[in-house]
Amino acid sequence: MTILSKTLDFSNLGQVSLRMGDNDAQHRWGGQLHHGVTGNPVRQLQAALVAVGTLNATDGAFGHDTETALKRFQWYGDHMDYRLKLAPGTVPASGMIVPYSMSATGVRGVCGQALAAELIAWRGGNFVTTTPLVRLNVAGLSNVEPSDTFTTLSYPSAQNNEILVHGDFAEVVSSTMDDEAKRAKVILDINQAFRVAGIQPSGAVVPPAKKSQHLVGHAVDLNIVDGETTNTAAMFKNGTETDAADTFIEAVKKSMRWGGDFSPADPVHFDDYLDPTGEDYGMNYFFAQHCFHAMHPMRLVT
Amino acid sequence: MRKLRQVLGLAILVTLLAAARAQQPRSGGARHDMDAAFHVGKTVVLVVIPNRRKPSDADESYGDWADGLNKFAAQAGAGIKILKVTPLCLSNLLLEPKLTNQFAILFFRDSEHALVYDGMVLEPKIYRLGLAYMRHETDEKLDSDYGLQDKPTRFR
Ligand SMILES: [Zn+2]
After folding, report:
1. Is the distance from CB of B115 to CB of B137 less than 8 angstroms?
2. Same domain flag for A158 and A122
3. What is the model's pLDDT at position A198?
4. DSSP classification of residue B147
């Protein structure tokens, strides 16, 4: 810890900010050579990023991976208002979700003094970054339910009646969608929400889509149930869906996308669209997928 | 001598082309694979997929379809043979039924009957109904609601 704080506040280097191209072995720090100065600040920065969960390994060279990891930590500070606190020697799966706010994240991809201090504080307090996903308990909603084909993802903290979605999208489901379903007098039978990325161990028949809204928890697939009638994709294709289904769709389309408008049509799909080419998509994807695999606890939203 | 070489070359080319055609039936070998599966008591699922470049990674319709199909395949078990065919390959394989979409699925109970969905499957219920059909446990009302049709099949 002493070494970490000494090297990360760079007291032996002056007001240096670590950046792309810096390298301990070459004594290049802050974009300049510092002959005669000892230390391994890049490796220490990397160790801190590994500790907070945005980097995999240390090598003493500030390259693309380190820059990405730093940007992830900075994005997290700007966008997330909670983090995990771990008991010493434990893994994130047994961490505790605690509120948090980061004051200054600085220039993206560059580690200045303030950010170094923040990382030291995180490491000292055993804090790690965590998932933007939440467990939405739909039992608390009047017009949303898991369908009989809904498969609860094998996730330790998820229970029956809980669907995994992004925290922002949970509000869309529990307010816009549930409210409009109530108004249209329909029930929303959820087939799928968050989707785990990649190929299943048993192999895939076809390659999966790599930039779906489901992968960041911003989409649901559902059937609209109107009394005894389940509005299926085939009914939308034939134009035989019920009036109440159309009423619901028209209402939610003011703030969401409906897959029935896509080509080819996907009438069971609804999302609130996070631009898949944007930074937010990439960051949410990383934290959602990475923390899912590491089995981070998720906030329960009712 | 030069003419003889040309004739020989042409003859070899014709022979090679004929051999290649014999090895690759117009149904892409699906008929052989289906017969082999039926022979050992398996049921067969034919997945019709257009022969084209993969759609964009942000295509949600493709993504929902691909995810559902992969999940079904992962859970299907050894008693079900899943075969991919192109629409052209399907029309070279079957006289009946005739399908109109680029995407489709046929759940074969035996070589003469299949539950057919002529389009992209986007609902897990369709796979559940297809499985029930192959096990002879079908609810006919649900079939029509979900766009599934029990069809007699006729091979070319
Ligand atoms: Zn979807």
Report:
1. no
2. no
3. 84
4. T
